[in-house]
Design a protein that fits this description.
5-stranded antiparallel beta sheet, two-stranded parallel ribbon, 6 helices, 9 strands, elongated, transmembrane helix, transmembrane, membrane
Length: 228
């Protein structure tokens, strides 16, 4: 018989697992990893209403995508085009970024799988006498290691020609040049830290769902058990 067990700690772990997976996925897909040096609008275009030059813009560069301004749309409100610069894996600008993409993709796939499974831990707490919480916590720890490897390798690719075109000639491995780090990089770091927090917190979720109070509720014949 399925017993639906919901505790504060198990629910918090489930929510954190889902948030972490989405945060890492969004960061990976974003083009805002590097913010390039300011560039003026094409031909120093003059604003017809004010007579002044349009403000310069900052192109952004991701692992496989970029955002830049298109000249024929410079007077439009939506003048920035974002999309992948690499049509296939081999066209990613740096070998280090290719490795980053692999490590991050593996880590994110594991996190997404754990996030999916975490939803069902309210009904199923163990499989083959193994705690789902402990297994998921182990997988989250492994995913965190993949994410760390990807984030360590990513700055090594700042010396590639693509990054230099955005960050200037002084850009090199682990040196930003004229660029700055975008929100996607910080989100990936924050998500990695939360991944390890989730891995540790899974043990607390296991303790909460197998406590004496839960066992007492089960023995009383309750199918829905909600505990603080």
């Amino acid at each position: 018989m399925c017993h639906v067990i919901v505790t504060c700690r198990s629910m918090l772990w489930t929510l954190l697992s889902i948030v972490v997976a989405f945060a890492e996925l969004i960061a990976f897909m974003s083009a805002d990893w590097l913010i390039g040096k300011a560039k003026p609008s094409s031909s120093e275009a003059v604003d017809n209403r004010t007579g002044g030059s349009q403000e310069p813009y900052h192109p952004t560069l991701g692992i496989y995508g970029r955002c830049t301004r298109i000249s024929h749309m410079q007077l439009s409100r939506r003048d920035t085009l974002c999309g992948p610069y690499a049509e296939n894996f081999n066209e990613i600008a740096s070998g280090f970024w290719q490795a980053t993409a692999i490590f991050l993709a593996v880590g994110i796939m594991i996190l997404c799988a754990v996030a999916f499974v975490s939803v069902f831990t309210m009904c199923v707490q163990s499989i083959m006498k193994k705690s789902i919480f402990n297994v998921c916590g182990l997988l989250q720890g492994i995913a965190g290691l993949f994410l760390i490897l990807g984030l360590i390798l990513y700055p090594a690719g700042w010396g590639c020609q693509k990054a230099i075109s955005y960050c200037g000639p002084y850009a090199s491995a682990y040196k930003l040049g004229d660029c700055s780090l975008g929100w996607a990089f910080y989100t990936a770091i924050g998500g990695t830290i939360l991944t390890f927090i989730c891995a540790v917190f899974s043990a607390q979720a296991e303790i909460a769902t197998s406590s004496d109070k839960v066992q007492e509720e089960i023995e009383e014949g309750k199918n829905l058990i909600c505990l603080l």
